[in-house]
Amino acid sequence: MKIADPLALKAKLPKSIIVFAASQLNGDRETQEDFFENYNDECFVLADGVGGIPNGEIAAKIAVETAIWGYKLIRQRSFYWQDKKLFMKRIFRSTNIALWQKKRETGFEEGLATTLEVLVVGDRIFWLGHVGDSSSWLLHNDTFTKLTIDDADTHGYLTKVVGTKRYGLIPQYITGLFLPGDTMVIVSDGVTSALDKESIKKIIRDSGNTTESITKTVLELLKKAEDQGGTDNMTAIIVKRIATR
């Protein structure tokens, strides 16, 4: 099946639109080591700098900015655009190398590392890349599904991150339908350490169809996580496809 370039889709009258909102809290941390960015309402990226390694906030920022840069550059090459799994792998490879090379600079000799979520949405389909213990979820009708598997052991220690090894990083790759009425949720582990699946679902299923209502839902989700004892940096992104006709 041939997937149309989202740039071309912009020229047509859409049957649906993407509405999103995002926000974050520091918890009890002095620095915010989560970083997120959206490009053109079609690529959404979240990184959470790894605790225990210096410069987590810088690692997260570099990762997100490199992933967005990679998305914009790599998608211009039709070979990669037609093979989304390879496309996503290239984005993660570029991001990993950027962090790996940063350790050559003065002050970064101990290295940098981060988790990374990259969500790309097309006309009816999503493509998702994942490394680490942030997580991505899909609400379809009333079914709420965790799409990603945490790269962590039974004690909660990360087993895979971006930036610590020069070669061999392979992200989890997930793809599926993203239809009008569906909602994607991307959160850092600061949220999921405080809230379980049902708690998140209960909040987001009534998110509404406007930027204002979805923003309110994001803030409610973060406040709930904080009230439930969340102390880590917390970031939440909600992406919803809304039917227009």
Automatic annotation (TrEMBL):
Q: SUPFAM superfamilies, alphabetically?
A: PP2C-like (SSF81606)
- InterPro entries (UniProt xref): PPM-type-like_dom_sf, PPM-type_phosphatase-like_dom
Signal sequence interval, chain numbering: none
From what superkingdom does this record's organism come?
Bacteria
Q: What CDD domains does this protein's entry cite?
A: PP2Cc
Q: Where is the PPM-type phosphatase domain?
A: 19-241
Q: What is this protein called?
A: PPM-type phosphatase domain-containing protein
Could you tell me which species this protein originates from?
Candidatus Gottesmanbacteria bacterium RIFCSPLOWO2_01_FULL_43_11b
